[in-house]
Amino acid sequence: MVGNESSPLFSEGKKGSKLVKAEKLQEGGSPLQIISETTWLSMVSEGSAALAEVDINSVASGFRQLLHWAQGEDQPPSLQAFAIQYLQDRHPLLGAVLSGRPLPGEAIIPRDLFQSKDFLPLLADERTGIQTLAVNVAKYELRRWEVPPSQIFLLCESPYKTVRSFAIEALLGPEKGETAEPFHFKPEELDPSLVFALCESRRRAVRHTGVTLLQRHYDLLQGDQQILRLAESPDRDIRTQAVRILWMRYRRPSIASTWTPKQDYRDSIPPKAPLANLSDPSVLMQFARMVLFGLPPGKMEKRPKGARRPWSNSKSKVHMINVLRDLALEDQLFAQQLTPLLKQFLSSHHKMEALGSLTAITQIQQRWPEQLNA
Predict the structure, then answer these.
(1) Which of 14, 133, 167, 328 would bridge 155 by S-S if both were Cys, CB 3.0 to 4.6 A apart?
(2) Domain locations along the chain
(3) Coil, strand or helix: which one is 2?
């Protein structure tokens, strides 16, 4: 079999040593046949009768045979590896990326043959080669298959790292300044409840994916309605990230929101102005106690690639006090609940905690004089 690209069978390129040897064997009376790649793909399905004419039906049948070789349990490893590579090399878009140049028409397997019913189930296959085939094809066909985002969220919990990484990348989309890939989902397509479900995953990388999505698209994902759910996370890093998000959201900015620095490295969560209200203050108080009275953790687990460096325990406490103070300055009832909690930290051995609590109580009492006797 001679490949279609730069093939001497189509008056292109030079004959290789194997082709020259095959021609000598033919001249010596050998029944050996020299055929093109397209003809071979037809013969896979229809045998020698396919030599008479090549049509789309025979190519489709050949594609089915290749797919059988690629995923069959009883196939020789060499044949399976060949079929996997061949299917990727002849995909119109994936093949062009792998080869570095557009594929000629004769070398292409039509995209319509790459269907979701054949490739999505392969994402659950335990064999790495099959997973890679399914992921590589899905990167170019996922949106054409019209796979709902909810199915991609489920793939984030896959037991296979290759599949999880693909699903996470599809949800996160491009980094700032990068171009979106065909399989990336737009932020407005994401279900807020499913994003917060990621934050509660048992897998550390998946939890950080949920937090990253929340930080990037806080308003779009209705963060104010569910942010306190992160307080129940067993992961200390996630609780710390919740404090960071609350602080960024409910801080009282000292710089006008219209001012923009020359190089803006600020997060995408703007302060909520002018009046901040959380749906359930009692839940916030419970979260605050968990953070303020929490013990420093032991050795930290390794962070997922690209995850932010977590705040220290002391920094989280100081920022939590600042968040509570700013909310109390807007809500008198909340200020009444908060003041006794802050007074417990006036004697803290950590200087910043004690000073932060003293400053907060002073500002609250100035804002609400009734708190002087609280």
Answers:
(1) 167
(2) 222-253+269-297+307-374
(3) strand
